[in-house]
User: Fold this.
Amino acid sequence: MTTQNDTEYEETIEDLEESDFVEDKFDVGEDTGQDDSVIWSRFGEGELPPLPKMAAVNRAATAGVEVGLPPEFATALAHAAVNPSELRTLLRRPTRVNIAGGVIEAIDLDLYVPGLVPLPTNNRTMEKRVYPAAGAEGQAGPLTGPRSAPGKTTTLWIEGEDVSHVQDETERARDYILASNNLRESIAARGIAMPVSVVFFELRHRDGQPPMPLLGTADGSSRITNAQKVLGLTNQTTHYHYPTNRDDYRRSIGAISGADPSALRPLARRRLMRQRNALITPARVFLRFTPTREGYDYARAVNAFVGMLHVDPPRPWSQTGKLEAMAEAVLDVLRSAEVLDDPVHDYLAGLLTPEQAAAEGLPVERDEQAAFVLAVLLREHHRDLVNRGIQDVTAQKSVGPGRRTDVIAELALRATRSSAATLGTTDPERKRAERMRAPYLRCARLARYATVEWKVTSRSPQKLLEAALEELRVDSASSHSDPALWVNRLELAAVAQYHLTAWGALGREAMSDTEADKRGPQQILEAMLAGEQGLRLLAQAIIDGRAGTHPRRVTENGDYQGGLRDKYGRWEEDPAGKPMPIEDAWLRYEIYPTGAVLPRPVTPPNETPRMKATRLKGQITQYVEQINLDVDELTSVEEVQGGPLLDKEGWAQPNELLSQLMYVHSQISYWARVAERQMPRANG
Assistant:
């Protein structure tokens, strides 16, 4: 029997057929080729759970306050709960979940999707964010947070400039997720199967507008975003309208849960079945965080929890997103340890505009800004804190130097990536920003960056070159190596590598051609630091890069090298020609050539046992570094359809290889313990 409400619902659905509500072709049954017999519902052909009565909702909200939840949290959770009576029971016996730095009390229950929002600061979208450091006009930057008060707490907060800023950023995140992680068809047909992780947060506004109390998905934002697309919900509705108008919220749920599929015509019935599947999600709700380690707060613990799910398989973010998430965790650790004050933290995080950075006395040139991040975060005495931040959001027991440096270098490019994101896909500057990432990350692995205390002084390229040349002269005349004689050269290299990688003058090592030079760009950079011509090339790269032109070749005397292109497009030296550009192949094969993939030092004729041991240890170090480079390359190999290839294919039967690596690991570990035992004797 068709009721009046059923008829009204069917008419409403038909009125919306031409609206944005049904813009996706899968919303219309005929377009997908499905018939009634293959439409499946999480709830079968039976009734959905009925919309709870307000009396039950109010009792659940009261129960939440009684166990210590803020009234806004308790109210939002009670309205989102499919079964408020079950919620009251669960609140009295939450599950304790051990997490980085503390314990979270959590409950598992079904929630209505319209009562949730994807966390606006979802890390999956980090690579598309535009930070204030980019200096892009009309861009307010990402939302701040999530943050939390220290100690035991129930609440996170996220802040924007105003409602418009929040809507712009949430829409940007929504569009990115819908384009890059399209789950609409699956959710419309099967519902959300795996629980989402839900936290309570306040959405604050700096312009004085009242905060919005919301339930957000710290993990599961892609599922909720796609489900809300199936339901035809907008960010404005879920973030601002439903939290302040519970009557409309309940009516929207009741229109789906109270409708009878069998009473509707085929088109409306198919649409209803899809909405039924998207309406409810299993969830784990975080109620309260209690720290057990100094320096950890709720926000840091949640970021660590989400990172453990996504930075490593089985459900990874993109490579940039993973490194960005680790970088955020590193900054949190350094701030908690009071290594960074607020201005420097915000500067490193890309949250200061160029004008604000200048007011704080911090570098504003893009190349110096990137070098500043390397200089501060690669310092040896920060290594343990950086490792701790990375371990917070990964499943790794230890952090290798390659991973640590990649995280820091990715952060160094944040402002550049932000600026590029505002440009068209064919814009040359955007293409340079995309091209430079891999070689820049490799350049940052120059070992001296992490072993010498250097800094960015914002001197002109000419002044910096003069200091570097004098440093080289003194170092060459010295009988022993002094780290202090590298500070100027390292600053010059760190600033110059920005332009060399952006213009392709330094590229990453070849990976397939066995005859090609396999040295990483950091090894070419190190060779440049050993001679006068290399230093002059670095200074010229800064001058030309800042002028927006390809870096040009110069001689040891600083004169431009002229040349002409032959019929094959290659440069041939000709004093009458124009200055030739610095090219990766020119550096590798003409200026700093090598004849071997991994050069093996020649054995001296009178080699002592100690000399031989030193030589072999050096060779092993080179081999391991190359293995590390190759493994990192494997992690970034993308299949045609997108996504890391090895995360889907795996590595079949690497048992023999793993056995060899385990043997090498155990042998070197044994020698390390021997050295530790010898140390007290030497001191004695």
